[in-house]
């Protein structure tokens, strides 16, 4: 700590969660926020970091906040019908989804990220007896030992799959399906062009992270993860959360939608099992 601030030294995929956190903090100060996450703002104020390094500005924040708003909406839908759910929020970073959504008392929520991120969560975010922080790589099967079985289970992976290798990512999805009797897998993904053009993604480039797993559409998942059924598949700009974007962004979406491979660069996937 410096004064009352926490100093962070992260690199690679772990560092990218500072960019998504900062985007949410900047959004919270906008006159018309998309996500309106006061937790992000509070956490940013307690971290000693040169936030310019994230390359995020208020104008760029909707690229992150529309995604978070989207997964908030899908998560709410699952929790509305499964008040006894187990939630696996994998690659959670410092996202405060549990506190934004305040699930009911019957829900057990697991925020999973690398140990150094989990430690920051424990220091900087509020605690709740239903909100369990797991310090582990999501690819390590051992952490499943502490996850309850026999309950409807939701896995949310926001901004995660592209950092995993295909074999690690598919193994994670299969593990969730094998562990729980029923539930949903919700995650976003980049197609091959999103992975190949990673050099143009300033957040990824500045962090030194590498992107690996290209998911080109639902068939890639349905063929590889037995027991899954497609519920929804959307491109980023088709999401309801994008209706609140500034006009410049909406124009970009309209252009992107004309070229399928570009339109599919960033996608949202939702499966039942
Ligand atoms: C782009 S950030 C997204 C963070 C958060 N989901 C959000 O939207 O704000 C990527 C996150 O995935 C985490 N991550 C990447 N690979 C991981 C792995 N193998 N195990 C655990 N966490 C991982 C990183 O540490 C980081 O917190």
UniProtKB/TrEMBL annotation:
Gene Ontology biological process terms in this record: methylation
GO molecular function per UniProt: methyltransferase activity
Keywords: Methyltransferase, Transferase
Transferase found in the keyword field: yes
Pfam family, one: LCM
InterPro entries with a match to the protein in the record: Ppm1/Ppm2/Tcmp (IPR007213), SAM-dependent_MTases_sf (IPR029063), TcmP-like (IPR016874)
Domain of life, source organism: Bacteria
Name under which the protein is recorded: Methyltransferase
Organism encoding this protein: Mycolicibacter minnesotensis
């Amino acid at each position: 700590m410096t004064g009352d601030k926490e100093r962070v030294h992260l690199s690679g995929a772990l560092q990218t969660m500072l960019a998504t956190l900062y985007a949410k903090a900047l959004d919270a100060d906008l006159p018309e926020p998309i996500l309106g996450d006061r937790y992000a703002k509070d956490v940013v104020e307690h971290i000693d970091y040169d936030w310019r390094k994230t390359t995020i500005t208020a104008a760029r924040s909707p690229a992150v906040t529309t995604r978070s708003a989207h997964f908030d909406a899908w998560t709410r839908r699952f929790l509305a019908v499964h008040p006894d759910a187990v939630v696996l929020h994998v690659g959670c970073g410092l996202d405060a989804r549990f506190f934004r959504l305040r699930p009911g008392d019957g829900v057990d929520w697991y925020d999973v990220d690398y140990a150094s991120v989990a430690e920051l969560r424990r220091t900087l975010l509020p605690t709740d007896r239903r909100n369990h922080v797991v310090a582990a790589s999501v690819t390590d099967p051992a952490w499943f030992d502490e996850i309850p079985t026999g309950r409807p289970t939701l896995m949310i992976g926001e901004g995660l799959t592209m950092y995993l290798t295909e074999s690690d990512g598919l193994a994670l999805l299969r593990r969730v399906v094998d562990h729980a009797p029923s539930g949903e897998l919700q995650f976003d993904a980049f197609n091959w062009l999103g992975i190949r053009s990673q050099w143009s993604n300033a957040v990824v480039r500045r962090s030194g992270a590498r992107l690996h797993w290209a998911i080109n559409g639902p068939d890639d998942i349905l063929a590889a993860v037995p027991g899954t059924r497609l519920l929804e598949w959307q491109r980023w700009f088709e999401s309801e959360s994008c209706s609140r974007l500034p006009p410049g962004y909406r124009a970009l979406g309209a252009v992107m939608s004309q070229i399928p491979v570009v339109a599919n660069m960033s996608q949202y996937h939702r499966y039942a099992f």
